[in-house]
Amino acid sequence: MNILVVNLILFTPEKGVIPRMGSIKDTMIHSLCSGLVKIGNKVTLAASEEYRPSSNEDYDFDLKFFKSKYPSLFKPSLIPYPAGLREFLLKHGKNYDLIISSEVFSMATLIVSRVCPEKLIVWQEMSMHQRKFFKLPSKFWHNFILKSFMNKIKLIVPRSDYAKEFIKKYSVAVSEDIVEHGIDIDKFRLSDGKKRQFISSSQLIYRKNIEGIILKFKQFHDISKYADVKLLIAGRGEMESKLKSMVGDMNLSEYVDFLGFIPQKDLNVYIRESMGFLVNTRQDLNIVSIPESIVSGTPVVTNSVPSSINYIRDNKLGIVKDDWGADELVAIVDNNEVYVQACKKYRNELTNIGVAQKFMHIWSKIN
Prior knowledge:
The chain is an alpha/beta fold.
């Protein structure tokens, strides 16, 4: 099949600032496109020009970038308006068998739904209204734009149970099948060798609540039986200095290592050697690091904020508990092999090839 994947925002902006990246090979959407290619499809990825990588790497799929129109109104960091996408679809849309577009609340998805609705699957991540301007733009979009101008969409495929519950309030064209983020198993490999360490990987910003993880780790560290276990913190961000000072003040410098930003292949080494991956976020949807960890055979300890908690809980891939603490870390260490085996068993459900096959199965059922 010839597939067009439309995903305008390739990286997560922070406070409206789009990061300048050299490659898109560490992104979620690269994993999807690569998975679709690996099962025999020809793929083109359409994205916003503002997210074009700075290096000229080779990819196993085509790339098409569209500059954002009216950036003061349609901010490229939030809801870009892709100039030329409509004209591109009018000219080339007939060449594609399937179009996968990210999010209902998207100018790109609106454009595709007006030109090629019969070929369109919308991959829905949002499970709540965006908070900008008191949620009014999102509520207007879902209650009016979606129902009046996007009502010919072939199907909306949610990425989580939360996303399905949310979008079903506004559309009847919602799949019962859920397709999560897929992980490239060429980068995230398994390892049977575990070190006495935990890992956290994210931006070092307030929303990720890394300081909360450090406090919980201190409670765990104070139990003499586990005093040798280390905590690795991967990532960079505005709170890095504050977090390092916090670790020093708590006399944990010997047991907490800050790794900085690490490419996916290198990060996988640390993840697959760890006994658990720790999440304590204040606000997030799908955290890609969670399936990356499970695919690596490493269980997850998380609060109930991420939308992936149901499959973690249902398949015993770790522990889901609000205000988790030392007891949960003890349980992961003492029962590590049980959790690791559960992750290995579930692994194929989260690979990019498995996700690509799910899309093909869903498409075949509705055609």
